[in-house]
Amino acid sequence: MRKFLILTLFISIGFISCADQNIDKEIYNILCGVWDLYPNYEKTETKYSWGKAVKVMFGSIIIDLGNKIPYILGPVRACPIVSTRKITDKKYALTIIFPDDSKYDLIINLNENSSLWFEEMDWFKNIDFLAEFGKDHPYYKISGPENKDNPYFETIIDNLRFRATPSTDGIFLRMLQKGEKLNLLQKGKTETIEGIEGTWVQVRTEKGEVGWCFDAYLEEIK
């Protein structure tokens, strides 16, 4: 409820509009979604600009770049995003705005396993925004929009492990069942597991969940 009250306030006083931004497609595909420190905790379903998706109750960070007014919602507050930019292949900046019209940069780094972490910013000392930040506190993408430019796959076995990162040691999310439709988001490393060669792929389920699985047990939907 608090999120919608804050966003309504920003809309009514006209800080920014969708026309003020031209969000890069790469930034949208990578950052837009629901991120969490503990992706296997109890989840609830919420509606975002890309449709219904899951989030961890009381703990997720939401970056919605498809909303009429793009925003980031943390544990404490929601802030409109007035600009986005790519710094390097693994580093991005979001400029956010507060009710007093002050603007601050939020620097986001990507890990090799596609989790992300927030750099500690000087303004964190004076403004309560993120409780957990730094390399030791990676956030995992658990929900997000589909990428309609990429192919769709179907699982061909029951009980295919769905993980938060592309590794057999990755945080377990759930079992995918035979016949589930998956949208490819990105490809990871190729390896051989129990004598079977395949590639780790990050996918989105029809429920809006995002995670990784081994593509040796997927079949492309033509």
Task: Describe it.
The protein is built from two helices and 17 strands. By secondary structure, it is mainly β. It folds into two domains: 2-142, no CATH class; 152-220, SH3 Domains (SH3 type barrels). The chain has an eight-stranded antiparallel beta sheet. The chain has a five-stranded antiparallel beta sheet with strand order 16-15-14-11-17, with no helix packed on it. Strand 4 and strand 5 (71-73) form a beta hairpin. The protein is elongated. The model is unreliable at 1-20 (pLDDT under 50).
* Total domain modules: 2
Secondary-structure-derived class: mainly beta
Reported for the largest beta sheet, the result is: 8 strands, antiparallel
Low-confidence segments, given as residue ranges, are: 1-20
Q: Could you tell me the strand content as a percent range?
A: over 45%
Number of strands: 17
The order of strands across the largest sheet is 9-8-7-6-5-4-1-10
Task: Put the structure in a nutshell.
The chain is mainly β. The chain has helices spanning 2-13, 25-31; strands spanning 33-36, 43-48, 51-56, 61-64, 71-73, 78-88, 91-97, 103-110, 116-118, 140-143, 152-155, 160-163, 172-176, 181-193, 196-205, 210-214, 218-220.
